[in-house]
Amino acid sequence: MASSNTGPKLPFSLDRYHVSEEYGFVLPHPLAELPPYYQPWMDIARQVTDLIHDRTLRSYIQQMPLLDTRFLKSHRELRLAHLALSVMTMGYVWQEGESATVKVLPRNLAVPYWEVSQHLGLPPILTHADGVLANWRKRDPEGPFDMENLELLLTLPGGESVRGFFMVTLLVELAAVPGIKAIPAVINGVHAGDDGAVMGALEDIARALCSMTEALRLMHTYVDPAVFYGIMRIYLSGWKDNPSMAEGLVYDGVQAEPVQFSGGSAAQSSLLHCFDELLGVSHELQSGAFLTRMRDYMPPAHKRMIQDISSSPSLRDFVVARDSAPLTVVFQHCVSELLALRSYHINVVSRYITIPAARARQLRAQGEGREEETLTKAPTALEERGTGGSGIMSFLKTIRDRTKEVSLSLPAPQE
User: Fold this and answer.
1) CATH 1.20.58.480 fits 14-404, yes or no
2) Does the annotation flag 29 for ligand binding?
3) pLDDT digits over 84-108, tens only?
């Protein structure tokens, strides 16, 4: 948190930012159906995977009626509409892989997609807010939040690995909830000079960060690296910083010139942005610019929460000024758990991107591919990049190293 004269209104409260006490940034109880007028969207959105497989999705979308968005009344209706239009758009653009992309999104998809996006303050592309935060339901409504009881509302090619990828990411979001709920107590405690309140809240945050790492470990159980790398990644990719679509995409009926939007990225989750701002992590110029840009892919209220945490009085300065060993220890525990999470994320990215990329290059060089065709089908343009367009490993290592820099040493013992 950087010091500022214009911080958020105190006491700091989550309800100001559309953040749920139970679900955090996750959309509570997403709708599974739109009003009947929008059934043509849902009919195609639910079949996207099969239509891509049959190479017929583009023709189905081209025949789709142009629907008026004014009958979408509630926030949840808008979120489901955005998800459905996003899934159709990713399938339309990438149906034929990286070699036969399109330059124009047809008007009957582009116009309503743009309008719904404007209402929500989200870009017209599949985001973390769509695929993870608003794309879930429980098979048994009374059952637990676990992998066996969660399913997607809408999906993309990749079978069970797609469900695994989005649902494990959802569980990481839910694991963070106690930490998100503790942020107001930290900010209000710093403002009031209440060491005990700050310490208790930081302990909750440290535990939440540890739980997030544990949830992320499920990725290895539920997502096949070859399927993620060879099939799924292209449908999460955008038209910015992507050589396959260097100019971007024209949204017919909206923009005459092509526009560029980044694909889905873990950096579009508000979680680590909040914890970074709270603990005072300052990123270097290039990484920081990418992370700041990713905030434009979040629901506006969530972005505003991150900004308000940033403009609150500095927690790290407060801890240093207090010169208290117990307070310093619990602050450092939070930093250590955040570092552990970032280090584990690097491990995951290595398994799902770096290693498969090397294997795919080897197979292509050897002219092989039948046995491991899934890997060789992967887009070559994305080999060293994340779906958001970042140079993934150097980016992750840089932000991990900057996290280390907020570490504190214990105060000297009092004589």
Assistant:
1) yes
2) no
3) 999 999 999 999 988 888 999 999 9
